[in-house]
Amino acid sequence: MKVNYLFPNRYKRIGWFILIPSAIIGLVSLFYEYEPSFLDFNVPAIFVDDLFKDKQLFGMVQNNILNEIFGILIIISALLVAFSKEKLEDEYISKIRLESLVWAVYVNYGILLFAFIFIFDFSFLWVMIFNMFTVLLFFVLRFNWQISKLEKSAGYEE
User: Fold this and answer.
1) 3-state DSSP of 48-89
2) What distance in Å separates the CA atoms of residue 35 and residue 41, rounded to the nearest whole number?
3) CA 158, CA 108: separation in Å to the nearest integer?
4) Among 97, 75, 78, 87, which Cα is nearest to 9's?
5) pTM of the predicted model, to two decimals?
6) pLDDT 10s digits, 123-139
7) Is the distance from CB of 82 to CB of 88 less than 8 angstroms?
8) In the chain, domain spans
């Protein structure tokens, strides 16, 4: 089956190589609030609070870009892992890929609905921050779990 929207298989290994250390180091630096001073820069910003006021909408702010670096690395590497072809990409793998993506979206939005009802204030902001990454991570986890189950079954040969 010809699938045009997937990356070549070799990108999956590159994605895993970047995703695992980025996620671990990113979470550790986030929880321990580690921000090295050499990553402090003046960066362009949009001031959303001033959107409907007569104040400056665009400007520069002093920001440590460590979180942005790890966020970008996690998103790009998770996309590479999630949307790289398998060595044998057939219709059944495509079916598993689609079902895993639908499942990941359902679970992600179920958690988001739960958060809307039961989590408030600054804690809700943390939920929203992690929610940016969970669709991809849920998809990667479920898809790879389904593929490993398929490979262990007796009727499947590569």
Assistant:
1) HHHCCCCCCCEEEEEEECHHHHHHHHHHHHHHHHHCECCCCC
2) 12
3) 32
4) 87
5) 0.86
6) 999 999 999 999 999 99
7) no
8) 1-85, 87-158
